[in-house]
Write a structure and sequence with these properties.
Elements (H helix, E strand, L loop, with lengths): L8 E6 L4 H8 L2 H5 L5 E5 L17 E5 L8 E9 L4 E5 L5 E9 L2 E9 L5 H28 L17
Antiparallel strand pairs: 1-7, 2-3, 3-4, 4-5, 5-6, 6-7
């Protein structure tokens, strides 16, 4: 593969939902826990824990836990940018950064996820470029499923290992 760019990838998916509903699913503890995470705790830049329904803000920090994984699998990061309507970005630990954009295209509401600043060593290519890409494919599909019909596809059992939905 000549000169593949391992530092970033882009994923896009149309979702039959209002842009606000999609945005809200990304910007609060309760929203993220409805389709993505087992636990999404946010703390303001002043060190105050956010209410589960309050909207996150720039410089908030987070601790995230996934269904199907033990509490030792925790992701910590910071909200880098948020505009209140259709865009946000956050640090994603050693895996780089993630940017979310919500837009209209051909009368469809589209979400685009870009993970960027991914390290380029071989382990990062496997764990972050390929691994995160696969993870985001599932979670974006789950977000679509929940917003369009209410079915949550996540594996909630920690004892079930090596499944694509956790």
């Amino acid at each position: 593969m000549p000169n593949h760019d391992w530092t970033q990838f882009h994923l896009r998916i149309p979702i039959k939902a209002r842009a606000k509903a999609i945005y809200d699913a990304w910007t609060s503890q309760r929203g993220l826990e409805s389709w993505f995470l087992r636990k999404a705790a946010f703390t303001t830049k002043n060190g105050v824990a956010r209410d589960p329904d309050s909207t996150i803000d720039i410089d908030d920090t987070y601790e995230w836990l996934w269904h199907g994984w033990s509490d030792e699998m925790v992701e910590r990061g910071t909200i880098l940018q948020i505009n209140g309507k259709d865009s946000l970005s956050f640090g994603f630990g050693k895996a780089g950064n993630v940017k979310i954009n919500i837009d209209k295209e051909n009368d469809e509401t589209l979400i685009e996820l870009t993970q960027y600043d991914i390290p380029t060593d071989e382990a990062s290519q496997i764990n972050f470029y390929l691994g995160c890409n696969n993870g985001w494919l599932f979670y974006l599909t789950n977000l679509k499923s929940i917003l369009e019909g209410g079915i949550d596809l996540r594996n909630r059992k920690e004892e079930l290992k090596n499944v694509i939905n956790s």
